[in-house]
Design goal:
Blueprint (H helix, E strand, L loop, with lengths): L11 H57 L30 E3 L19 E4 L22 E3 L5 H5 L3 E7 L12 H4 L8 E2 L2 E2 L7 E3 L9 E6 H26 L25 E3 L17 H5 L7 E4 L18 E3 L2 E4 L1 E5 L30 E2 L11 E5 L1
Parallel strand pairs: 3-7, 11-14
Antiparallel strand pairs: 1-2, 2-4, 4-8, 5-6, 9-10, 10-13, 11-12, 13-15
Helix pairs in contact: 1-4
Length: about 400
């Protein structure tokens, strides 16, 4: 049998070149895979940045809406449950649902979308709904929504506050989530995820935040009472200063109203001869009236129950007969000359439920301001949600 011809031997130099070409091809493949991976990672980061920006814009709009509400400062609109951008109208005295999409039209926002092109979702604490039945809404009002990290720790326990509202970026569909039909598009469970037995699609929570995974891609931001109430208190303080200044100028008594005693707080009426205590609901020697009266929402939401108030002897109705006065003017930080002042208390610390006859629960950062004298100091805390002193003039 004739032997097959042998293949020509590849020169040694050519064999080396072939190996180099193969190595280059392998390296290029690995590089392409790395570039693809890096591109996907970068794309995901960009999407998260877009979502974070939309969430922040939504939170700011909600806080601004609450602070400027004409009749119930601090309140927020119901969620949008039919995806038209408008808050749902109340059903009786309650929201039809306390979870839905962010009502971007109601908030006068553009049609906000997250990094995946989805509209934002929104959950509201029922006691901050925009209805008279939610009154009183003031610094003692706490949200009812809880938020946890994936490891089970509570974000709000650490901060000592409760959540008024939560805003969600839902991301792309995961698992069995379907967003094809109108019914599916109006169902929170097709947008918001479950992790560690906590369901973000539940109206009452508790809600969960964590890193993206194959089974979880929600991003969220929340509004705590400490984010909201300082702005509401600034509005309240402006109204009280205006009312007291106008009272002195226009009531005919050339005075500020008497205070209501902290110990006998059931009626919040002025007690003649008392220059320090709660700001009265029913003022004397002249009743609140016309230009020297805070707005009706101030009384409806019982803000007077939170405001510690003091007036100097020379600016009372009877300067020579003020049994509780210590001096002709009030002293602040050792400097005399203040005519009248008041404190707004900020949000209660931790789980504290304030009681009306315990002044120290309202002046937590104001050491020696509850000593029943006319000597006051500026509150020590610089935090925006703590006690604040307001002076006249």
């Amino acid at each position: 049998m004739q032997r097959p011809p042998s293949l020509p031997e590849i020169p040694r130099g050519q064999r080396g070149a072939a190996l180099i070409i193969m190595l280059v091809i392998v390296v290029m493949g690995i590089a392409a895979a790395l570039v693809s991976s890096l591109s996907a990672t970068k794309l995901q980061a960009i999407r998260q940045e877009i979502s974070a920006a939309a969430l922040s814009q939504a939170r700011d709009a909600l806080i601004g809406r609450a602070a400027s509400d004409a009749g119930l400062p601090g309140s927020l609109p119901c969620p949008d449950t039919d995806n038209d951008g408008s808050a749902q109208l109340l059903s009786g005295n309650v929201c039809p649902s306390y979870i839905g999409r962010l009502p971007w039209r109601t908030l006068k926002l553009p049609d906000l979308r997250d990094g995946n092109g989805e509209r934002l979702w929104y959950a509201l604490s029922p006691n901050f709904r925009d209805d008279d039945s939610a009154r009183p809404l003031n610094s003692n009002t706490k949200g009812e929504l809880a938020i946890y990290r994936a490891d089970g720790t509570s974000l709000l326990t650490e901060a000592g506050y409760s959540a008024v509202a939560v805003i969600f970026s839902p991301g792309s569909p995961l698992g069995s989530q379907s967003r094809s039909t109108v019914a599916e598009q109006n169902s929170a469970s097709n947008y918001l995820d479950i992790a560690n037995s906590r369901n973000n699609a539940s109206a009452s929570g508790p809600f969960i935040t964590g890193t993206n995974s194959e089974n979880f891609n929600d991003q969220l931001i929340f509004i705590a009472t400490k984010n909201l109430m300082p702005l509401i208190e600034q509005r309240v303080a402006a109204e009280v200063k205006n009312a007291l200044s106008s009272y002195f100028a226009n009531s005919g008594c050339n005075c500020y109203p008497w205070a209501d005693t902290v110990d006998q707080w059931l009626d919040y009426d002025s007690n003649v001869g008392l220059n320090r205590g709660w700001l009265p609901n029913n003022a004397s020697p002249v009743a609140w009236s016309g230009s020297f009266r805070p707005p009706q929402w101030f009384f409806d939401n019982e803000w007077y129950k939170l405001i510690y108030y003091s007036v100097a002897r020379d600016y009372t109705d009877d300067p020579g007969d003020c049994d509780s006065c210590d001096d002709d003017t009030l002293s602040v930080d050792g400097i005399a000359g203040t005519h009248a002042l008041f404190f707004l208390p900020g949000t209660p610390l931790g789980a504290l439920i304030r009681t009306p006859n315990t002044l120290s629960e309202y002046l937590e950062d104001s050491e020696n301001n509850d000593n029943n004298d006319d000597l006051y100091i500026t509150p020590t805390s610089s935090a925006g949600d703590r006690d604040r002193i307001y002076r006249l003039p």
